[in-house]
Amino acid sequence: MSVLTEIDQIIALLEARVLPVNINDPKNRKLEDKFRKDMEKYFQSLRNAFPYHKLADIYNANVKEVLAPPKPLEDDWLDPLVKVFTSTLLFKLNGWLATVYISGSVQMISWGKTQKLIPITFEGPPMESAIKWAEKYCAQLVTKMDAETKRQLAKVISDGIANKRGVDGLARDIKGAFDNMTKYRSELIARTETSHALRAAAQDRMKDMGVTGKEWVLGSGGAEGNCDLCITNADAGVISVDKEFPYPDPHPGCTCSIAPVMMDKQAEAMTANDWKAEYKDGLPHWAEDVKPSVFAKEFIAMMKSHKQDSLLEIGCGNGRDSILFAKAGFKVTSIDIVPKAIKLAKENAQKAKVEINFEVANVEELPFEDEKFGAVFSLSVLHSTDLEKSLPEVYRVIKLGGVAFIYIYGDTQYKSGKKTEDVIDWQGYLADLKSLGFRVLDSYTKDEREFDEYDEKHRIFVVHLEK
């Protein structure tokens, strides 16, 4: 590989990880700061407008030993207060969130113009879409903000009455609560809602620009300084731009961002003809190794613990794991979609002197009756099938109480840049298995850090299942 080629690959990698709507970008931090100052003015206005002169009446009426004041306190006192300023709040939020949305859209468009492979179908700041989005979202946001303001004030008043703080003490507590809202809550609202608007803009512009994928990029602190929800989103890896992350709504103070990723180099999953073509010029690399996999050895213990004696291997290749299962005393049926693979597997089984039922078959249409096998084993195969067809078939042929081991690639990368399999969403994959009726006994996912001897690097998904 030449130096120029390596430089081109590095540039491509960096471009694929540009964060056009990163909340920590200086431009976005300035918007956030102005947003925060407007929220501070709002809470200061509430502080000054609070009807402190009525505190004596409510305090004296509820000075008995109670844990909380009557419910009318919140309705009769606090609703009118926040309603007076609702229109002001709505105006401020609409203006700022529309501004942030436009900023995120422009940043996204600017990023897209540097990507040669992305067809740009949208030009110019989306003023109309920004206004529509802000109006729709702000109505919900104002309701939530008002409810939280009333909740905090009601708690301060309740605590003050229960602790017999007196009218003057209660007034000081309320002013202190507003001071905290002005300082801390304004900052939290500005950070959270700026992040939300930027993500919404990114999502909309990605679709307009033909971006096909996205990934969750952890904010400041990386895996050590982020919450479990955000780490789960990041672990989902690259997903389709039309799909949702496991936890799509930003939590208060979230600094994560969404990065656009082009997925349109990916082809459809491999067909039967594609697999047959792999054997055209001799044996493919996976057919040369006759040593059984470590996963097959582990699965034997699992089958024995569940007292199962019959097994179906899907995608047996050269038969190496099927031979191990047969030697362990199991009744083995093995299928592969490639006739040459089945021929090779039969030859290897004969050399090993074991009885195995080999068949040429497609996992998307298994030629077996319902609940025929006590176990199913599939290593590095199903990612090249239509999972909406193959997974239900796997479930169908397993006996009640039977077990399965499935190992797939959630994503395959090649040094050449080529991709063959669809990127699979980890959380969505687990959810699909559970919806079929499987119980997930164990599962894990990991990214291979280095390219292997075949110039491939994978995101691995492994599950142990029970029906």
Architecture blueprint of SSEs:
Elements lengths: L2 H13 L10 H24 L5 H7 L10 H13 L1 H27 L14 H36 L3 H44 L3 E5 L10 H8 L3 E2 L16 E5 L10 H7 L15 H12 L4 E5 L5 H8 L3 E6 L2 H14 L4 E4 L12 E7 L7 H11 E17 L11 H11 L2 E9 L8 E11 L1
Parallel strand pairs: 4-5, 4-7, 5-6, 7-8
Antiparallel strand pairs: 1-2, 1-3, 8-10, 9-10
Stretches where pLDDT is under 50 for at least 5 consecutive residues are: 6-18, 64-72, 114-123, 264-268
Give a short account of the largest sheet. Answer: 7 strands, mixed
Number of domains: 2
Strand order of the largest sheet: 6-5-4-7-8-10-9
Based on the structure, what is the oligomeric state of the protein chains?
A: single chain
Structure description:
The protein is of the alpha/beta class and 467 residues long. Helix content is 50%, strand content 15%. The longest helix has 44 residues. α4 packs antiparallel against α6 and α6 packs antiparallel against α7. It has a seven-stranded mixed sheet with strand order 6-5-4-7-8-10-9, with helices on both faces. It has two domains: 207 residues, no CATH class; 195 residues, 3-Layer(aba) Sandwich (Rossmann fold), CATH 3.40.50. The protein is elongated. β5, α12 and β6 form a beta-alpha-beta unit. The chain is built from 14 helices and ten strands.
In a few lines, what is going on in this structure?
The chain has 467 residues and is α/β, with parallel strands linked by helices.
